[in-house]
Amino acid sequence: MLKRLLRLFTGTSGSQQSRPADHPTRPDDVVRAQQALAAPQDVHVVTVPMVGATVTQVSLNKWLVPEGGYVRRDQPLAELATEKASFEVNAAREGFVYYRVSAGETVPMRSPICLISPTRMRR
């Protein structure tokens, strides 16, 4: 189960050889994955939505909710941008937000950008 969560966070099985060079595993990702396993309720992983057939990556311009802050369902979480347009990603459920990506980073489509936990997670 831990390996499955690590793949969600890093796109790998956790091994050094298969990790993309531009998205290294952060030590806190492992801690958060372990906490997600121990969480009594479901933790939702928010990913970059597909916005076009030819778009392969987006920039996370800014977070609209502070890390650890509480969001309601359908509340805007982050502002993302492609080469042609900016758009917001909304929360699919309510809970506490924990970043996976920092503002200013460029990330591939379908990559995890944050977690929404129904309960506070230790940092």
UniProtKB/TrEMBL annotation:
Gene3D superfamilies: 2.40.50.100. The keyword tRNA-binding does not apply. Its cofactor is (R)-lipoate. Residues 45-115 form the Lipoyl-binding domain. Residues 10-19 have a biased composition (Polar residues). It comes from the Bacteria. Residues 20-29 have a biased composition (Basic and acidic residues). InterPro entries: 2-oxoA_DH_lipoyl-BS (IPR003016), Biotin_lipoyl (IPR000089), Single_hybrid_motif (IPR011053). CDD domains: lipoyl_domain. Residues 9-29 are annotated as: Disordered. Keywords: Lipoyl. This is Biotin-requiring enzyme. The lineage of its organism: Bacteria, Pseudomonadati, Bacteroidota, Cytophagia, Cytophagales.
